[in-house]
Amino acid sequence: MTYFKGIDKINYEGPRSHNPFAFKHYNPDEKLGNKTVEEHLRFSVAYWHTFTADGADPFGAGTMQRPWDHLTGMDQAKARVEAAFELFEKLNVPYFCFHDVDVAPEGSSLKETFQNLDEIVAMIQNYMKTSKTKLLWNTANMFTHPRFVHGAATSSNADVYAYAAAKVKKGLEVGKELGGENYVFWGGREGYETLLNTNLKLELDNLAKFYHMALDYAKEIGFDAQFLIEPKPKEPTTHQYDFDVSTATAFLYQYGLQDDFKFNIEANHATLAGHTFEHELRFARTSGMLGSVDANQGDTLLGWDTDEFPTDLYSTVLAMYEILKNDGLGRGGLNFDAKVRRGSFELNDLVHAHIAGMDSFAIGLKVAHKMIEDNFFENIVDERYKTFKSGIGKKIVSGTTNFKELENHALELGDINNVSGQLERIKAQINQYLLSVNEL
After folding, report:
1. Neighbours of 207 (CB within 10 A)
2. Residue 217 contacts residue 170 (beta carbons within 8 Å)
3. 386: DSSP letter
4. Which of 200, 284, 347, 422 lies 20 to 30 A from 429 at CA?
5. Per DSSP, which regions of 126-212 are E strands?
6. Neighbour tally for 7: CB within 10 Å
7. What is the pLDDT of residues 223-266, one digit of tens each?
């Protein structure tokens, strides 16, 4: 059965094209440096927002009726697999991601849930035999069902903790079976609503034990995936334990997990933490922990996780700068953890949204690549911090001075002359790069 009727494979037609079903900037075969654009960007389709979302939000019922929605249970799950690989082929994406309950419905028992998952995983595996699309990462949904009301690996109920462990154990087995390159831990409810009834240390200790057991089991079964933590500050809990990259990094070091985990950075989660996307990417990169990206954007006028498709070119440029300076994402990729707007309820909107996101990151890649070739930011930073390259500044950096020497230096100073940060000029120059993107 064909689900995306009337839509052929999406091809690159260039910036002058007016075809809504064509890429204007994303040319997967174009070479930039020693990689193709496809190899740089490593795009992935998110199963949940694309094939299971119905447009519902906290204030209204779903608006989207998909061609597979007349089905239920396993029949619907199988139809979604068919639709998914049809879309993967038409978009020509190299990767996809999913939660366990995205691809298979929960049964009346955990045993039945696993049986459902096994059946769908076998179907996915069969499709993958003739598809270029691989599994970027999978994860376990441990936040939707009421059993996780108090969390999963940080639950106040030991039975829930055990249930969560069983789900992750199965997820690791599925990841190995499908050749997943990463495994993600998103702590949907791993946090607290109030400290009035919370044993914070016990919960954090238990969470760390959970991660160590997951690592042990992955090694036991030979699942050589990169483990990723996806920071988020709040929502659904008041305070998530993986608030942002800095907080989660401290957690990893405290519990001896820093060598085994990297971060899956989501733009909208950065916004909710009061940061920019590039801030979180920079902190992860400079710590050697930038692993993968959930490519979306938030609405800064709204205080919740809107998961919009990325179209902000400033953001994609600055994100791709961090990724290129990281020498790429390694096993990671750019996963469109993004959903069409509630009012965009037609099936074609799913395709248009992915085209927009892929084109936006292609522009970001090209501009960031040119900036790095020109040493644009490097020259700005070198000039701004040049006083640390000689004299007392060089001693500060090398750690060969002390307070007495610094005091003597300060006492001999006359007027201190600072230099302008020239922020407005820098932004104007970035505009010039963006406006000349078709010449790059």
Report:
1. 22
2. no
3. G
4. 284
5. 134-139, 182-185, 191-192
6. 17
7. 999 999 999 999 999 999 999 999 999 999 999 999 999 999 99
Work out the burial of residue 407: count CB atoms within 10 Å of its CB; fewer than 13 is exposed, 13-18 middle, 19 or more buried: exposed
Contact, 37 vs 26, CB < 8 A? Answer: yes
11 has which bridge partners? 22
Structure tokens at 29: 């075969």
Helix pair 277-286, 313-325: axis angle to 10 deg: 0
Other CB atoms within a 10 A radius of the CB of residue 9 amount to: 9
Rounded to 10 degrees, the C-alpha dihedral 58/64/105/47 comes to -90
Token pair recorded at residue 369: 């690549």
d(CA 73, CA 200): 38
Structure tokens at 28: 């997967």
Structure tokens belonging to residue 321:
């700068």
At position 414, the amino acid (one-letter code) is G
Instruction: Kindly tell me if the per-residue pLDDT of 28 is higher than 90.
Output: yes
CB half-sphere exposure, 215, CA atoms < 13 A: 16
Q: Does residue 9 contact residue 93 with C-beta atoms inside 8 Å?
A: no
Classify 319 as helix, strand or coil. Answer: helix
- Asked whether the bond before 236 is cis by omega within 30 degrees of 0, the reply is yes
Give me the residue label for tokens 């020259």. Answer: 379
Task: Indicate the helix (H) or strand (E) that contains 12.
Answer: strand 11-12
Mention every residue, 6+ apart, whose C-beta is less than 8 A from residue 193.
Answer: 237, 238
Beta-bridge mates of residue 12:
23
Mean model confidence pLDDT for the chain:
97
Residue entry with tokens 């993958």: 128
Among 25, 40, 99, 369, the active-site one is 99
| Active site annotation includes 102 | yes
Cα Rg, the chain, nearest whole Å? 24
Among 25, 40, 49, 102, the active-site one is 102
8 A C-beta contact, residue 245 and residue 261: no
CA triple 116-121-122, angle to 5 deg:
100
* Mean of pLDDT values over 169-177: 98
- Assess whether pLDDT exceeds 90 at residue 199: yes
Output the six-digit token pair for 305. Answer: 């996780």
Cα dist. 377→53, 77, 429 in Å? Answer: 40, 48, 11
CA angle 319, 296, 69 (to 5 degrees): 155
Q: Distance (Å, rounded) from C-alpha 240 to C-alpha 234?
A: 5
